[in-house]
Structure formats: C-alpha cells, structure tokens
UniProtKB/TrEMBL annotation:
Keywords: DNA-binding, Transcription, Transcription regulation. Pfam families: HTH_1, LysR_substrate. CDD domains: PBP2_CrgA_like_5. It comes from Pseudomonas taiwanensis. This is LysR family transcriptional regulator. Belongs to the LysR transcriptional regulatory family. Residues 1-61 form the HTH lysR-type domain. InterPro entries: LysR-type_TF_proteobact-type, LysR_HTH_N, LysR_subst-bd, WH-like_DNA-bd_sf, WH_DNA-bd_sf.
Length: 309
C-alpha cells in the first residue's frame, strides 16, 4: 500500500468516527478542503461513493460502511501496537477519547486538565460531554464516565467519587413566599424546576424514599431544562424548587445560605461517578494516566482499584 492510500483510508476512518469533516480535519491536522480532496481521491480509486453528506451530518454509505468495518479494526490494532512500542520507552502519547457526564466534566476533569497536560504533553484529550448515556463502544470512545447505576455491562469500572446525594433546594425568598414542603406530595402545590431526560426527552420524575421504599413524584413549574446550571440559577432567583446532585455546586450555595435544603429526610443518594472502559487485554497507558490524574494518585496496580462488571 502506497503512503497516499494509507493516508486516504486513515482520513476516511477519522470522518466516520467523528461524524464530521471539520472535527476529522482538526484531528488530522488538515484543512477541511484538503480532507475533502483526500476523500474524493479515495472514492475515485475505489469507484464508489463512501460518504453521504448533508449540511448537518455525514455518514457512511453502504459501501462506506463495509469498508469501515474492515479497515477500522486494523487502524485500532496499529494504534495499540504504536502505543505499546511507545510505552516500552516510558513515553505516553496518542489521543484519548472520553465520553462523560456534564457533572464529571465540571467537577473532575476541568480542574485537572492543566495538571494532566503538564504531566503528559503528548496526549491529546478528546472529551465529549454527553448526558444521553451514549454507547462508548459504538461511539469509538476509550472510556466513559457515568453514575454507577447506569454503567454498561461487561466493562471494567473504576470508582471516582463516593455516592452522590440528591438535594431539593430553594431560595430563602421563595420559601418565605410559598412555604416549606413537608413531604414530596406537597410538591404538587409548589413551583418546581423540571429536568428533561436526554435519553428520551421525558421530564424526570423526582425520586425520594419513604421508610426505605422508593417514591416518585411528577412535578411542574415555570422552567424545564436539561442543564443543571439553568436549574440552579432558576432556584437562586426564586423561581421554584430544584432537585440536583449536591456536588453540582449546590453544596457551596447551601453553605452560603443562598439556597436552603428541603425534604432532607426524604432525599436519596445515587451511586457515585465511575469511569468505565471495554474489557480488553490492553489498556492504553494514556487511559491509565488519566485515571491516576482523576483520582489524584500515583500510578499503581489497576487490580487494586478496578472491577469487572
């Protein structure tokens, strides 16, 4: 295979995996026009259209899907071989693709980005914030970060945080005007900041417990959002009661008295945040370094902290 042919196939795989010419071009260090020309050359050489493009998306054609299924595993094997050779020299490099919940991106990853880059300048972090619980294998990610109860099966899991407490909160002004609910049932008489689930678009039914038994409540109010910053801001401005993970900056606001917790005896905790990745024989050194950074630890045997699901 000539070098140009290898480059064409590499470009094709990058586009399919990133579902975007722009993102693939940025990853490959090419201009979008140069990348388009490379794909046209590949299509002319093969004699078939490989990609279907619209103004908003790009996806493989039938021929493109067949080609991708055959060549993508080969490129992954090459990447593993290169990583193993690099690791033998003690150097860590390559691209690490992470699919993460927003809460983990804000509270775990963002505060450690500079430290990780300083320690491993040859590693490119490709971080996708996704609260829709995407399939990391289908999305060609190296790892994902999720709440423990929502991990995919047959994965290696690494706990990143303790369990997460859910807290119902409102501003002092709102509670002075509307009163303090004494049970989840009384939320029907209150304005609530609703949370829209990204998996299917349905509003989240607030989960509580009564004497250890689960209890769900459908709430209503002036704001519906899929982003915690909006929900917390709405509560701060007295628009209603919000229900969030305490870690979502709510703890600091509670300490400052800008928000007040209600229904504390009814609120639940959820399994903490876990990083998980496919159960493969070779784990990239970059992923191990990333895990060490998230846990603020020095490298040690993964068997001490990781479990197979």
């Amino acid at each position: 295979m000539r070098g140009s042919e290898f480059a064409e196939l590499k470009a094709f795989v990058a586009i399919v995996e990133r579902q975007s010419f722009a993102r693939a071009a940025d990853h490959l260090g090419l201009s979008p026009s140069a990348l388009s020309q490379t794909i046209r050359q590949l299509e002319r050489r093969i004699g078939a259209r490989l990609l279907n493009r619209t103004t908003r998306s790009v996806a493989p054609s039938t021929s493109g899907e067949l080609l991708y299924r055959r060549v993508a595993p080969l490129f992954r094997e090459i990447a593993v071989a290169v990583a193993e050779a690099s690791e033998a020299t003690g150097q860590i490099s390559g691209t690490l693709r992470i699919n993460t919940l927003g809460i983990a991106a804000r509270t775990l990853i963002a505060p450690r980005l500079a430290r990780f880059h300083q320690a491993h300048p040859d590693v490119v972090l490709d971080i996708v914030v996704d609260d829709a619980l995407a399939d990391i294998v289908l999305g060609r990610f190296d790892a994902g970060i999720r709440v423990g109860g929502r991990l995919e099966k047959d994965m290696v899991a690494v706990r990143l945080t303790p369990d997460l407490n859910m807290v119902a909160v409102a501003s002092p002004d709102y509670l002075a005007r509307r009163g303090i609910p004494q049970s989840p049932a009384e939320l029907q008489d209150h304005a609530c900041i609703n949370w829209r689930l990204q998996m299917d678009g349905r509003p989240y039914r607030w989960e509580f417990q009564e004497r250890g038994q689960p209890l769900e409540v459908a709430v209503d109010g002036p704001v519906v959002t899929n982003h915690p910053d909006i929900g917390i801001a709405a509560a701060l401005h007295g628009l209603g009661i919000a229900y969030h993970f305490e870690k979502e900056d709510v703890g600091e606001l509670l300490a400052q008295g800008r928000l007040i917790q209600v229904l504390a005896d009814w609120s639940i905790s959820r399994p903490g945040l876990f990083l998980y990745y496919p159960n493969r024989q070779h784990r990239p050194a970059a992923l191990g370094a990333f895990i060490d950074c998230l846990l603020d630890r020095k490298p040690f045997d993964q068997a001490h902290s990781e479990t197979h699901r």
